[in-house]
Amino acid sequence: MEIWRHDTNPPEIGEFNWSARVVNDKIYDIFINFKIRDDKTKISYAEVRFIPERYYHFVTKYGMRPEDYDKVFPPEGERTYVLQPADGAFDELEEEFRAEIRDIVGGKEYKIVVIAKDQAGNVETFETKTPYIRQYENFGKTLLEKGIIIAASYYTWYRADEVNNWKDGYRYTPLLGEYSSSDEIVINKHVDWATGHGINTFLISWNGPAEASSKTKVFEDVFLNAYLVKNGEIKIAILYESGARLRNSGSAFFDIFDFNDSYNREIFIKDLEYMNKKYFILTNYLKIKDKPFIYFYLSQAYRGDFDKVFKEAKEKIPFFACGSDITPYIKPWEINEVEKRLSTFDAERSWVALWVQNDPKYPEKYHDILKTKYEEWYNYLTTKGVLFIPSLIPSFDSRYVTWGSKAQYPLDKNLEKFNERINIIFPYLNATKIVVIDTFNDWFESTNIEPSREFEFKELEILKKNLIKLLKNE
């Protein structure tokens, strides 16, 4: 007893570690081990607390509705485990402890707090934090293992600071609120939601090297370091923003990117060299036929000797090039310089799935056009040895953004029609093994499949339901 009264030093918590039961990248259970030591007094108490993190800034800063918080971060209470030593008795200066935390809901990070006491009443606390633990199993990974690529265009341009670009306008409202693309929790949430419903690749909108683009800086400094991305739980590829990189010699109504312009040739080669150095070496960069995939947005506006520039570039840096030359009104064999394009691009697709916004009759005939044109292009490209990549959009409406056309005819969100479009497009997966969704999170043009206040998770759930059906029919 005399020793107890003179012992004022707290016990030491050491050799802390934890392991997990993981299914398809989702952690369901955590197993904790640690020891408590004291140099004078026997250990008398040990406790572990498992505390879900709360992200109040989504409400206070991003404007998420309080009633939406539990939809985004599933509710889960704090847990406390009062432990007994591994040998069953508090009778030594050093004791070993184990704790099992079962049925973790996920969709957030967690604090693990250990509290230790000795018989003199001295207390020590140890605290650590888990990485983001998924809410959903990685269904996208399951598809990828079967050779099926479900990609979605992704943007890192949203800001919640003084430059806040959400003020430019949008129709549907993000369930997350007006978030920042540089928030790692936002990124992990996007990856969790996307891969949990079958999307296994993000095509990252790329506007140039980090020193020239704040969006690329967010991509490199934040997105690539978000836990689920860094852990390889989603593939990435580059969506090359031609309009942001190449000199446009066209007009306000007709883009022209002339590869006979030395400026364009030099920029293009430098960009490829940059991507090769920064991204193609990443283990989670998407490769098709062992070559890094790049989607060239607005490639239909390429003119001049682009075929020669691509050929020379591919000899130095092999890459799998996807063009965007598929259009609704022109036959495949009638597109500008068709043979040059087919020799340049390994694959072809249509941006926003053949949608045209300035035709009043287009909404009613859209699905028929999709059926006819996709079949026409698939058959033609297959005979030419070029991969046909079908595209899918949930909706399109840019009337609400400051730079959008107010006179357009929108494609409204409609769950039944979205399901119909999926069933038009998914049969091609048997042959092409790839579909691109435009987009995951372009809120300005309302092409988002990311959950909104208005539709919540319904579009993602429809996508997943059809993908499950596709697997069963394989």
Structural class: alpha/beta
Termini separation comes to 73 Å
What do the pLDDT scores average to?
Answer: 95
Taking Cα atoms only, what radius of gyration do you get, to the nearest Å?
27 Å
Q: What spatial form do the alpha-carbon principal axes imply?
A: elongated
Tell me about the largest β-sheet: 10 strands, mixed
CATH class of the largest domain: Alpha Beta
User: Which percent band covers the strand fraction?
Assistant: 15-25%
Fraction in helix: 25-40%
Q: How many strands?
A: 19
Poorly predicted spans: none
Q: What name does CATH use for the topology of the largest domain?
A: TIM Barrel
Superfamily (CATH H level) name of the largest domain:
Glycosidases
Count the helices. How many?
A: 15
* CATH architecture level-2 label of the largest domain: Alpha-Beta Barrel
Number of domains: 2
GO molecular function, one term: alpha-mannosidase activity
Keywords: Golgi apparatus, Hydrolase, Membrane, Signal-anchor, Transmembrane, Transmembrane helix
Subcellular location: Golgi apparatus membrane
Membrane topology: Single-pass type II membrane protein
